[in-house]
Amino acid sequence: MPSPPSPCVAIIGAGAIGGLFAAALHEAGVAVVVCARGALETLSVEYEGETRVLPVRVITDPASVTPVDWVIVATKAHDTPLIAPWLARLLGPSTPVVVAQNGIDHEARLRPLVGERPIVPALVYVAIERTAPGHIVHHTGHDVVVPADAAAQAFARLMAPGSLLSVRTEADFLTAAWRKLLTNVAANPITTLTLRRMDVMAEPGINALARALMAEAVATGQAAGARLSADDVEDVMTIYRGVNPSGGSSMLYDRLRGAPLEHAHLTGAVVETARRHGVGVPLNEAVLALLEALDRGLQDTRP
């Protein structure tokens, strides 16, 4: 009896996260096509002291693709509307869409573009940096958290043969999403606004600010139904102490590249949710105002 055909996965976005998923799936023996703006012939991944150079199939024109078995969306959250032409060509009647983006509103973001097809929100606990097109440097982390529904479990099985990423399911995904947001709501804006790497988080004043930003986010998440507590803040501080101090945040890397910032889906998500539930978040509101002003300034320098 012949073996079933190997699934084909399309990854939309060739940045750090998209590149890592491409490498992980290649290692797992899965056929991958990367949908991106610019052409690449190879993907170079620095991971735990080794540099792996992988062949990669990149397509730059949505008209050149056909429906696939899985789609992974690995663009920045604010770029989601721009991928509609890709999704229109890549999606079959029941193609699941994995959303490997920051934020807490993965399904709401993608649902208008994918109809009733399964959506798998994915929380990626990885510090990784794209240092050049086709070259990514892994700093720390390999966990990916998804819900416990059938589509998410199938995605975990798809990824299981590889070792670069470890996918696990979580029944209380709302709480998991807010816990992931906690890791971003302090480190991303602080590193971006100070133009510092993660070593800045060890400074006493910055440490206190990070705790206060996360405490506001905990209160907001609780109001939204997430089972958060002060212990979650301490867990994030432990994560910060364990990361490579020379690593940065995704938002810092965007600032260094002059790219649009993702503040609306991180700090902005806290502020918007807090306003809906009547929770006071003055520190996050102040940080959001700074990030918005910074992003407007960066826009003036973009070509």
From TrEMBL:
GO biological process, one term: pantothenate biosynthetic process
GO CC terms of this entry: cytoplasm
Residues in coiled coil: none
Alphabetized UniProt keyword annotations: NADP, Oxidoreductase, Pantothenate biosynthesis
Domain Ketopantoate reductase N-terminal: 9-146
Positions of the Ketopantoate reductase C-terminal domain: 172-294
Pathway(s) per entry: Cofactor biosynthesis; (R)-pantothenate biosynthesis; (R)-pantoate from 3-methyl-2-oxobutanoate: step 2/2
InterPro entries assigned to the protein according to its UniProt record, in alphabetical order: 6-PGluconate_DH-like_C_sf (IPR008927), 6PGD_dom2 (IPR013328), ApbA (IPR003710), KPA_reductase (IPR013752), KPR-Related (IPR051402), KPR_N (IPR013332), NAD(P)-bd_dom_sf (IPR036291)
Domain of life: Bacteria
One Pfam family from the record: ApbA_C
Gene3D superfamilies (UniProt xref): N-(1-d-carboxylethyl)-l-norvaline Dehydrogenase, domain 2, NAD(P)-binding Rossmann-like Domain
Record-listed E.C. numbers: 1.1.1.169
Function: Catalyzes the NADPH-dependent reduction of ketopantoate into pantoic acid.
Family: Belongs to the ketopantoate reductase family.
Name of protein: 2-dehydropantoate 2-reductase
Organism: Pararhodospirillum oryzae
